[in-house]
Write a structure and sequence with these properties.
Helix content of chain A: 40-55%
Keywords (chain B): GPI-anchor biosynthesis, Signal
Order of helices and strands of chain B: HEEEEHEEEEHHHEH
Oligomer: heterodimer
GO cellular component, one term (chain B): GPI-anchor transamidase complex
Radius of gyration of chain A: 28 Å
Organism (chain B): Myodes glareolus
Shape of chain A: globular
Number of strands of chain A: 12
Helix content of chain B: 10-25%
InterPro entries (chain B): GPI_transamidase (IPR028361), Peptidase_C13 (IPR001096)
GO molecular function (chain B): GPI-anchor transamidase activity
Number of strands of chain B: 9
Shape of chain B: globular
């Protein structure tokens, strides 16, 4: 008889798991954290290498010499920008036409759900200008994009200058097999989103834009450029995009090869928050591999001018020109401890796996306890396991489980829907601006959820109190494990961070024992407090430490930005936290205060 | 048969040319190049049909191999290959067994007198291991288990222009003129391991003549054998037959 279907052996395994459960859980948690910390060391990291044969190892001699022309364009752009106050559309059209591109414009308009305090905008309208360089001897089936985002606060004039100089240089070459689109967007990411939606003829974020008059074929790759000074000391590349999506590693390898070739200092920057850190983040959603390059002017001695940056870009575009298929040879899921080192998904997932194993072991323990307490050790042929669906345990009606589940989920729904819907009512009754109203409503509902456990129990009639909370905890553990697993897959950094904080609290929670201690632990590891804590930690790492008041303000701003980004770009952090993790966390709170 | 059109590729900065070296001295896609099968017409089936002569009746003469039992044939193949196969168009392969059988069919149908087979792929020697028809001489750029490597890159384009073995064979052949007496043993010495990195190989056991008596021009350069004869041949015709034909032409105008 098999190991799991033999009742005698199964009882032995059950006893083993129940006895050693706590040591196993602790070991698993420590293993997960240790594995994560070990990810920076050699056996787990590898040197990056170019996987795409068409982009090969052969480098191309760059011919770009238009540094002066770029600077002149930049100065003109800055002057016209100052004069007009917004993007000088007519000047851009004239310049692009003089360089030899097919020029088109697109206007867009978006009314944000509530005013954006950080960028000081509410009803945003703007114009994108783009020029298409047609491939001389090819059929316009594929294209590459060089985009420069211009916002009211980010003076990106050197990037615009470099874009125009590069366009002039590229126009004189005959070896382009793909069209190249030179795109200048207004209002940063809003403009980029409007352009992308119109280009792909869809509308996912409710932005209103005029249809595009000129198109150039399926976009194979895109590079976004942000430069704010005539000379740079280093180029910073951002890979993480919306919801933690990453471009194909080959694009980063390409950039790194040209950094090495030109002797440029290149750095890497990234975070776990799932925000689109640059226009490239929005391109990734359409499966267009994209990067954002940011020129940084710091206090180092050796400086590079626009020609060096232009040469790197020229080299990248020439190599991308050689592609016959989309980038698909290299990794799509990876971690980057450094620019030339990566960890593939097969090697970093076990870290999250060990953490989630803790939840699985706890769920298994509860399942065993429920069955033993129910006096029914033999079960009809179904092997117990962490992933098996929770059958309703004997003696506890479904009603006692459904009530907390429904109420927590309803609170999550309220957290998701009410702040934005009710902002006007809140603004009328309280002396706050709309944005603040949204954030404060958010916090109010969040805290109100904490008051729930006492209410849930009046609804529920508990027959066998012990089994009630065990069943609820079982469901909550599996729910949490599922969610964290999904989050870790798409955005590993976020998933690991949440798992590392929430797993111990979730595993330890029970109604018996030191209740205030468990309550404090749960509150500290709730998603909102994790966000607050990570903000402080991030600022510490950047060596710009925050005082408590500043930290609180930053926290409120981050909340507002999170909600806004969900509505403007479709970022998923806010819905995941509100509709997924928060109700799950509330279930644990229910378990803790079970009477 | 050219599967990829490099000369007219949009990425070629010098359209309609294919150079062997970045110094751009020798354009191998010159005026005397005729491409009969291009892009998607280059398939294993078409190749074998051309060799064996089993083409549809509507095939134009330029797409047929018009050879008989006095013809010497040169077959040069290059691309990506492995142990016993050569890749066609990223979607199919021709195996060494198929090729050997095709050559045997050619021999049975008396479609060649002598055949020179040159192959430049990775593990090229595996492609001539299975030949069993007489009068075939074969050369390959690398042995089984070896890779054939490319020559130098051209930084103006960003690709390697030619493979090493082909480059050195081309250099060797550029020295040959139609009157040259260079023989096959010299061709076997082209591209030693020090230049080619891989070890070129050859096979002559099926060939009836000694390789040192086989001229390069037997296969290259369209050098035809001209026999000078000292006899006179009378070209007399029946004068009456000439007259009547002439007068009937006058009638018909």
């Amino acid at each position: 008889m098999g190991l799991l279907s033999d009742p005698v052996r199964r009882r032995a395994i059950a006893r083993f798991i129940l006895r050693l459960n706590t040591p196993l859980c602790v070991l698993s948690y420590v293993a997960g954290i240790a594995w994560f910390l070990a990810l920076v060391f050699p056996p787990l990291t590898q040197r990056t290498y170019m996987s795409e044969n068409a982009m090969g190892s052969t480098m191309v001699e760059e011919q770009f010499v238009g540094g002066d022309r770029a600077r002149n364009f930049a100065r003109d752009f800055a002057a016209h920008r100052r004069k007009s106050g917004s993007l000088p559309v007519a000047w851009l059209e004239r310049s692009m036409r003089s360089v030899g591109l097919e020029v088109y414009t697109q206007s867009f308009y978006r009314k944000l759900p509530f005013p954006d305090e950080t960028h000081e905008r509410y009803m945003v309208s703007g114009t994108n200008v783009y020029g298409i360089l047609r491939a001389p001897r090819a059929a316009s089936t594929e294209s590459l994009v060089l985009t420069v985002p211009c916002g009211p606060d980010s003076t990106n004039s050197q990037a615009v200058g470099l874009l125009l100089a590069l366009a002039a240089h590229f126009r004189g070459q005959i070896y382009w097999a793909k069209d190249i689109i030179f795109l200048v967007t207004e209002h940063d990411l809003l403009g980029t989103e409007a352009w992308l939606e119109a280009y792909h003829d869809i509308n996912v974020t409710g932005i209103q834009s005029s249809p595009l008059q000129g198109r150039a074929g399926a976009i194979q790759a895109a590079v976004a450029l942000e430069l704010s000074s005539d000379v740079v000391t280093s180029l910073d590349v951002t890979v993480e995009g919306l919801n933690g999506q990453l471009p194909n590693l080959d694009l980063l390898n390409l950039f790194q090869t040209f950094c090495q070739k030109g002797g440029l200092l290149c750095t890497l920057q990234g975070k776990a928050s799932g925000r689109p850190h640059g226009p490239h983040g929005l391109f990734l959603r359409y499966r267009v591999e994209a990067l954002t390059l940011r020129g940084i002017n710091s206090f180092r001695q050796y400086k590079y001018d626009l020609v060096a940056v232009g040469k790197a870009l020229e080299g990248m575009f020439r190599k991308l020109n050689h592609l016959l298929e989309r980038l698909h040879q290299s990794f799509f899921f990876y971690l980057l401890p450094a620019l030339s080192r990566f960890v593939s998904i097969g090697l970093y997932m076990p870290a999250a796996g060990f953490l989630l194993l803790v939840l699985g072991l706890k769920a298994l323990e509860l399942w065993m306890q429920l069955h033993e307490a129910g006096g029914n050790p033999e079960e009809a042929g179904k092997a117990p396991g962490p992933g098996s669906p929770p059958l309703a345990p004997q003696g506890v009606g479904l009603a006692s489980l459904m009530a907390p589940l429904l109420i927590s989920q309803a609170m999550g729904l309220a957290l998701y829907v009410l702040p934005v819907l009710g902002q006007h009512i809140a603004a009328q009754h309280f002396p706050v601006a709309e944005a603040e109203a949204v954030v404060l409503t958010l916090l109010a509902i969040y805290v109100a959820g904490l008051a729930l456990p006492h209410n849930t129990h009046r609804v529920v009639s508990s027959q066998v109190p012990d089994r009630g909370w065990m069943a609820l905890k079982l469901v909550a553990l599996i729910y949490l494990a599922l969610q964290l697993g999904c989050i870790a897959l798409t955005n590993f950094s976020l998933g690991f961070l949440l798992a590392a904080t929430m797993v111990p609290a979730a595993a330890l929670t029970k109604p018996h024992g030191p209740r205030p201690l468990y309550a404090a632990l749960l509150v500290v590891t709730s998603p909102a407090v994790t966000l607050l804590g990570s903000l402080f930690l991030w600022r510490e790492l950047q060596e710009v430490p925050l005082s408590l008041a500043e930290g609180w303000q930053l926290f409120l701003t981050a909340l507002a930005q999170g909600v806004l980004e969900h509505y403007t770009y479709g970022a998923l952090l806010f819905p995941i936290l509100a509709l997924g993790l928060y109700p799950c966390w509330l279930l644990f709170w229910n378990v803790l205060f079970w009477k | 048969m050219l599967a990829d059109d490099m000369a007219c590729n949009a990425r070629n900065p010098k359209p309609a040319t294919v150079f062997s070296h970045k110094n751009m001295e020798l354009n191998v896609y010159g005026d005397d190049v005729e491409v009969d099968y291009r892009s998607y017409e280059v398939t294993v089936e078409n190749f074998l049909r051309v060799l064996t002569g089993r083409v549809p009746p509507s095939t134009p003469r330029s797409k047929r191999l018009l050879s008989d039992d006095r013809s010497n044939i040169l077959i040069y193949m290059t691309g990506h290959g492995g142990n016993g196969f050569l890749k066609f168009q990223d979607s199919e392969e021709i195996t060494n067994i198929e090729l050997a059988d095709a050559f045997e069919q050619m021999w049975q149908k008396r479609r060649y007198n002598e055949l020179l087979f040159i192959i430049d792929t990775c593990q090229g020697a595996s492609m001539y291991e299975r030949f069993y028809s007489p009068n075939i001489m074969a050369l390959a750029s690398s042995q089984v288990g070896e890779d054939s490597l490319s020559h130098q890159p051209d930084p103006a384009i960003g690709v390697h222009l030619m493979d090493r073995y082909t480059f050195y064979v081309l250099e060797f052949l550029e020295e040959i003129n139609p009157a040259s007496q260079t023989n096959m043993n010299d061709l076997f010495q082209v591209c030693p391991k020090s230049l080619c990195v891989s070890t070129p190989g050859h096979r002559t056991d099926l060939f009836q003549r000694d390789p040192k008596h086989v001229l390069i021009t037997d296969f290259f350069g369209s050098v035809r054998k001209v026999e000078i004869t000292a006899e006179t041949i009378s070209l007399q015709r029946d004068p009456q037959a000439v007259e009547s034909r002439y007068s009937s032409q006058l009638l018909h105008g």
